[in-house]
Amino acid sequence: MREVRSRFNFVPLFLFICALWLAAPASAQRRRPQTRHTTSKPATTPAASANSNATAQKIVVRTEPNAAVWLDEVRRGTTDATGQLEIKQVSAGRHTLRVRAKGFGERVVPLLPTERGRIALHLLPTKDEAELIFQQAEEAREKAADDDARKQAAELYRRALSLRPRFPAAHLGLARVLLDLNDMDGALAEIEAARRDRPSYAEASAVEGRILREQGDTQAALLAFQRAIREGRGFQPEAYTGMGLALEDKGKYEEAAAAYNKAVAQLADTEPILYELLGRTYERLEKYKEAVAAYEKYLSLAPDGKLAPAIRSIIDQLRQQANGQDIPLPPPQ
Questions:
Q1: What are phi and psi of 246, to 5 degrees?
Q2: I need a surface site. Which of 151, 175, 203, 221 has the fewest CB within 10 A?
Q3: How many domains, in total, are found in the chain?
């Protein structure tokens, strides 16, 4: 399991989702539904979810090249060589923007309801040794391809914490590494340490949910994901994704689909893998029209993605399966 999950370190949310999907227990693996002559029930479609926030606007962050950018504690990507990153569908209201670049001090600023369009953030170089080692640890974790590399990242986090013991982000990063190393007790201890210094920490609660689900405690995982959503004031796509997977574990597919649709809407079509999870859930509900729509959306976003060949095959099977049923499916793309 570690070898499979190791290919998907948490860089943007896509990698986390892949890790959760590939780490799903046997009870949650795809079960091809049996053909049944029925009409699919109404369901919330991915398109409807994504279009639910009509007031959303985009922002373009301008800062240092290769800077990581978070919106409301959810990583939304990395700036390009010119220092720009476009974030689509930012909802109305107040948000928090966080930017970190190697060799620079991290900056956190409020994003007021009137601030949309181009947002320029000037970062200052830093000589803070704890911050610089922490940045090295983050880079090492994101690039780690095996356990030796993960152990090196863990040591960097520990060095940063030795210099600055009260460093919630470093505790959280170490928790992620220990999770990938299958050290669940150690990972939970780091989450507890992070929350001691930052009691309301949505990202830490979402990671705690991942750990608990990996341990097989689905109910406790759901409670952690729900806490993450509360702490994120409703915006926590990592938690909604984890909740969907946990609900699938419990066989609650309608609720799982609703959770995935929440994550889809919040991430504005930036994570194609969510549509694979959504399509799989609709299959289990025998809502083939919705399943095909979700899979087609995945292919439109990631036509050359790793899952694309398998998804094309699944779509073909669903069309054959629906043959003769009163289920009008969208035409092939």
A1: -65, -40
A2: 151
A3: 1
In a domain, 85, yes or no: yes
Q: Which CATH number do you get for residue 81?
A: 2.60.40.1120
Residue 82's domain comprises 57-120
Q: Name the residue among 209, 233, 203, 205 with its Cα closest to residue 222.
A: 209
283 in Cβ contact with 299 (< 8 Å):
no
127 found inside a domain: no
Query: Quick check: is 84 in a domain?
Result: yes
102: in domain? yes
Report d(CA 179, CA 167) in Å as an integer: 19
Q: What is the pTM of this model?
A: 0.76
Cβ atoms of 75 and 95 closer than 8 Å:
no
Angle at alpha carbon of residue 236, lines to 133 and 142, rounded to 5° = 30
Quick one: which of 218, 214, 227 has its CA closest to 248? 218
Predicted confidence (pLDDT) per residue in 82-121, tens digit: 999 998 878 788 888 999 999 999 999 998 888 888 999 9
Residue 106 is classified by DSSP as -
Reading the block at residue 273, the tokens are 């893998």
